[in-house]
Amino acid sequence: MLSDVPSSCAAAYIAKEFCGNADAVAALGSMAENRRMPHAFIIEGADGLGKSTFSRLIARAAMCTCEEPMAGACPHCRKIRENIHPDLLFVTGSGKINAISIDAVRDMRKEAMIAPNEADKRVFVLEDCDNMLPAAQNAFLKIFEEAPPHAVFVMTCRSAMNLLTTIRSRGRIVTLHPVEPDEGVRFLTGRVQGLDSQRAREVCVSSGGNLGEALRILGGDGGEMRDRADALTRGILAAMCGDNALKLAAECAAIGKDRALGGAVCRMLSQQLRSALMVAVGAQETLDAPSQEVLRLGATVSPDDLIGCMDQINQLSNMLKINISMPLFNTRLAIILQRRQYD
Ligand SMILES: [Zn+2]
What we know:
Blueprint: H1 9-17, H2 22-34, E1 40-44, H3 51-63, H4 75-81, E2 88-91, H5 102-113, E3 122-126, H6 134-145, E4 151-157, H7 165-168, E5 172-175, H8 181-191, H9 197-206, H10 211-218, H11 223-241, H12 245-253, H13 259-280, H14 292-300, H15 303-319, H16 326-342
Parallel strand pairs: 1-4, 1-5, 2-3, 3-4
The protein binds zinc ion.
């Protein structure tokens, strides 16, 4: 068993709360253990990979006074877990592009100068910094350069490449990755009551190891998104059947900027095309009440084309994890489906 124990005790405690990502966990563990923290972190990763959770763990590592670092027993660990620590502050975006404004940065500057209330550090988490305008980033850089030693800044973003080089070069970059199915199954069965490991594995695989997405699929809060994905998928299939390229493009564009929704639509489309494939190869009786659209696609599109189309949807869906822009995603999806329709 010794080989399974992360490099420090603190890392072992962190690993109990953060799934996978062994490198990031080990690095944070040794910082907590040595009680030495960088002044700035940049956490990058797709939505659902745990940026917000990891930023709280960084805050705990910065403030923890447990005898064994990160054990979760001190008031700082407890208050951060309960979201009531006065020295952990979140700065979020506003306006049309949901970006952190210059004004928000200036307000944070005043806060950063104030001594901590209860801990030795004050931790500021700047969330979703991808759209932060250069002027706001430069204002932040100024704070950062004159920050008092008690301040720790954590920026979260989909990709650190969306930040100015000057910021990137000053922060410790933590890249979060999807988890392996075995890790995901352990996490999900521990988190969701009554979940059996087979279903956990299915959901973990279908979410591409993205646990936020997996929890959305499993949890009640995913219901609304499922309904939207379902409605969009039906609209897209109807447009494919009706040979209506304009409607098809409009239906795909309606996915908008929601990456999780884009992923859910891809999965539902793949399922429907797989059903159409069963129709196309004459195995219709294996299906439970196929829709008109599935029957029609099965009758008019060749099996090879259906398989090719599913492949391309799968590839496109994987690009969601490497931060393809959503307008490009929506356009590509329409092109994939259109091309198949006329093949
Ligand atoms: Zn603690």
